[in-house]
Write the structure tokens for this entry.
Amino acid sequence: MRDNRNEFWPGYKTGLEAWSSCWSSEQQTAHWHHEIQISVSVSGSGIVYDTTSAHVVPQTTGVVIPPLCIHRLQPCRQQPWEFVTVYLPITTMTPRLANLSQQKVERLSPRGAKACRELHQLIAREKQSSQQSRVLHVLMNELHQIKTSGDSPGIRSVSWIDETKLLLSRELDREVPLAELSERAGVSTFHFARTFRQITGMPPQAFHLQCRVNRARQLLRKGQPPADVAYSLGFADQSHLTRHFRKLVGANPGSYRRRARSFKNAS
């Protein structure tokens, strides 16, 4: 995403993470993450795609992207789009938020969008966690008001899909061959790859790569060196990890680790 600029602030004590982004033309690679993503347009407009729909995000409006929801973002009409994002860790999930579909992006209320921008500023300015908690409480209340649209019609359930996703989320130290996955599922390689992509919205290899990059993000936040992270997750070398990390996260592993460590030391 060479035409896109990103800056980020990992809130060490709260587990929150704030990003400021300004994108000009290139679209994001389809991906997912374990956190709740809340993004609000500051200027310009963007589009957020989930597996079935496109959601236009005009200035001052926002969207909620649930955990595990496959999505991608891009500016409207290749015009500059500035937006802020706050990632809420999975620990903030409540029974009411569990109703958010893994398939659907949801709209954020105006009050929720305002709270997201305020929370973003508090994280970026390294304000006390008590201040962040106050605004987070307002934001969570707005999230609880979301009337979910439910799963999209036509999305069917296949038992081996969930089993495969669970396997890929655990086998993080190697690339798992497609033949091995299809054999476990008891179907042909062609049928396996086609069905997995139709139901999840991305190929199995891309899903597994996202699992490994998500884990790399966690390890880097804990201060592990990028070279060690690359080795433990089965990447050929640090540059191999860097290429995929930059593409899916929007920063290189070294700068991501340094920023996380600087916030940790300052806390």
Remarks:
- The chain is about 45% helix and 20% strand.
